[in-house]
Specification:
single chain; about 425 residues; alpha/beta; 6-stranded parallel beta sheet; 4-stranded antiparallel beta sheet; 10 helices; globular
């Protein structure tokens, strides 16, 4: 049994890049066992297999016991005027008040850590970026403050007195600057909100006790268990969490779920962005109303007509599948093709690019010799995270209609690539990649 088979955490992203779900399928075949893939939001690949009759589709039409699916309300943030700059819309604010008055609990979901997500200079428009990566720094409050690389603390701003700017790629830390490093303007502001900022905002506005569940709060041994058990005992009125709080938890007194920025995942440069967003929103919606009392879900978005939002509102996976599978077929992405991501990374940007370019040319040459149709190499292009831990990253995407075509080209191509690879450049090969970043 592979529960939540769609979950991208089953794909290992370093070392041996295997997919545990596919390994389970292989293992089942070896022992003639029955494989059960369980999910309320199956991966498109798995659901398409059932549509083709390659696996058996079994549906659970209702929740266990007397519980019913929660009502989902889409909140269009574009239409708001009063309080439009607040992280919490008026409908969500009202729902929280009513929930707390009834003595019930709420889950507030935002898939972003930290106190503020966007350190921005209002004069020149530049964001504060990591010196070792191409990632924007995130403001974290109430964080342990060991010796850090940049002592440029702005002591005149109490909000930042116990804060650090942190890179989520390499762990680099620096004190918030008193002026913009690019233009020198003092107008550096910290926009957007993460789990830390949202927890403090809710505690201040509602005078209620909250807990936070993300990779920062759950880092210490036993922390995850303690947070979940404390919330389950009713020792907190609300829980603020990232995707760690979105699935697998069952709290009978949790009747309200609020999604703060539902569009975050849709903007990722990844062909699975819509699928992941639908799965995540559906999973977090399912936390509400699992006991005797009905649940209510509010999803804040600036794109309410997107088919992901409409399908989540109606709890309609098949409507989402119909829309998304058409997009995938038109663009030639899985399940209509098989991919391989080939990434080069190294300290010298020009050298890394030239190696990737030469590899692409060699691959195209091999394809031309074999005259295999519907087999292509895309790139080279900078990775979406183009620099990580002082290494520049360029990638190629191999796309094939059939797995066997992908297999033979890699068997010929990869040895040719490795022949000219210097020691300081790393080559990563990811079959059926899940993380395109």
């Amino acid at each position: 049994v592979v529960d939540e088979e769609h979950d991208w955490a089953y794909k290992q992203d370093d070392g041996l890049r295997y997919q545990a779900r596919d390994l389970a399928a292989w293992r089942a075949r070896q022992s003639s066992a029955t494989l059960i893939l369980g999910s309320a939001t199956p991966s498109l690949e798995s659901f398409q297999r059932s549509k083709k009759g390659l696996s058996t589709l079994l549906k659970m039409e209702s929740r266990p016991g007397s519980a019913i699916l929660p009502e989902v309300v889409i909140v269009d943030r574009r239409q708001e005027t009063k309080g439009g700059r607040s992280a919490i819309s008026q409908p969500v604010n009202n729902a929280l008040l009513q929930t707390f008055e009834r003595g019930e609990q709420a889950l507030m979901f935002i898939n972003r850590r930290g106190a503020s997500a966007l350190p921005l200079c209002l004069s020149c428009g530049q964001t504060l970026k990591c010196e070792h990566c191409s990632l924007t720094l995130t403001l974290h409050a109430d964080i342990a403050r060991p010796e850090v690389e940049k002592r440029n603390e702005d002591v005149s701003r109490p909000l930042l007195a116990n804060s650090l700017l942190v890179c989520h790629g390499c762990g680099y830390r620096a004190f918030p600057p008193s002026s913009c490093p690019t233009c020198g303007s003092p107008l550096v502001r910290y926009l957007g909100v993460g789990t830390e900022g949202l927890t403090k905002l809710l505690e201040k506005n509602f005078k209620k006790k909250g807990l936070r569940l993300d990779t920062d709060s759950a880092k210490a041994a036993g922390s995850l268990k303690n947070i979940l058990e404390s919330f389950g005992r009713g020792e907190a009125d609300f829980l603020v969490g990232t995707q760690m709080a979105a699935k697998g938890h069952d709290f009978s007194n949790l009747t309200l779920v609020g999604v703060i920025e539902a569009d975050l995942g849709l903007n990722f440069p990844d062909f699975r962005a819509a699928e992941r967003t639908f799965q995540l929103l559906s999973q977090v919606s399912g936390r509400a109303g699992r006991g005797e009392r009905p649940g209510l879900v509010f999803i804040q978005t600036r794109n309410p007509s997107h088919y992901v939002m409409e399908a989540v509102k109606e709890h309609n996976y098949e409507a989402f599948y119909k829309e998304e599978i058409a997009v995938r077929e038109e663009l030639g992405y899985p399940p209509f093709s098989r991919l391989c991501l080939v990434r080069f990374s190294g300290p010298e940007e020009k050298i890394v690019f030239e190696l990737a370019r030469a590899a692409a040319e060699k691959g195209q040459e091999l394809i031309g010799e074999r005259k295999v149709e519907e087999l292509e190499i895309l790139g080279p292009a900078p990775s979406p995270v183009s620099k990580l831990k002082e290494k520049y990253r360029f990638q190629l995407l191999l796309r094939a209609q059939k797995a066997q075509d992908r297999h033979w080209i890699l068997k010929l191509w990869l040895p040719e690539i490795r022949k000219s690879l210097p020691a300081e450049v790393t080559l990563t090969v990811d079959i059926d990649p899940y993380n395109m970043m």
